[in-house]
Amino acid sequence: MPIPITVFTGFLGSGKTTAILSLLKRLPSDYKACLLKNEFGDIAVDSQLAKETNIGVQEMVNGCLCCVLVGQMKLALQELKEKYNPDRIIVETSGSAFPAPIAWQIREMEGDGFVLDSIVTVIDCVNFMGYEDTSYTAKLQAQYTDVILLNKHELVSERDLDRVIDHVNELNTDTPKVKCGVNGISPDLVFGLDTQLFSVAYNKTHHLEEMVFDPHHQENEVDLIQVIQERQDTSLTKDKLVQFLDSMPKDDIYRIKGFIRLDSDNQLYILNHAFGRHTLTRVEHQETMDEAREVQVKITVMGQDLRMYTEKVKQGLLNGASGEVTLTKAHRH
Description:
Number of helices: 13
Helix content: 25-40%
Structural class: alpha/beta
Distance between the termini: 38 Å
Strand content: 25-35%
Number of strands: 13
Mean pLDDT: 77
Shape: globular
Low-confidence stretches: 40-45, 59-71
């Protein structure tokens, strides 16, 4: 199974390291993440900070990640893979890095057991309009990404935040923009198609609930729709599910994850939908199947302005039968 790679980009001082460290703290203890840092300058202060969290760090000092020799990045990733065999690698680029060449290099390494999962751009709401006007890189970073984190949003007024979002929308309308608060960001939002994270959480708690429904949802940065349906005689077809997923706009719908039975054999699947892409993994773990024997659908949808999608989600997932559909609005910081 290839190791998924998440790339963090963002202009100098946007808060990438802080966002990553808070993200790592929210991962299950059995989930192994490695951080590949691309330092800008000689003093690797951030890397010392990152080592405090017991994460493997491969430093690449002096030289931007996107313009070093491909071999150097390849060697760094391979070293992390051999030394730590991680479930995921996070690449933190320097502030001056262009995202596209980094993505291209990682895609070239698919044969070596790596897959690009997502590109996350951190935007500093306090300073973005200043450097967005002058920095070609900042504009590219905001355009070439799967999700945009609005960092330091609590330090600006609502009016200034709206102006930042308007500027970002001029560069990139379709990408989700999520506020990143003092508690950081949930792995559910920025880690895309990660079945391993799902199974690690289950192996730790043995509760389907915590795999699908965030127990701290009252602290959530986003709206949630939770869908629960008891076992039915007939199931949704795979084709109809894919049709429904394809109809969900990725600028509003960030994640759809959980369990669903499909097709005539009523087989249970783990559904994982992120950034407009999805995976369906057939459940073969006997303990999971036993616990879910009465479950037809148990799914969480994450996004913004979900009130307008509640009916569509109900129709798309419940297959015309009754079920429980609950909307939880985002906790506003």
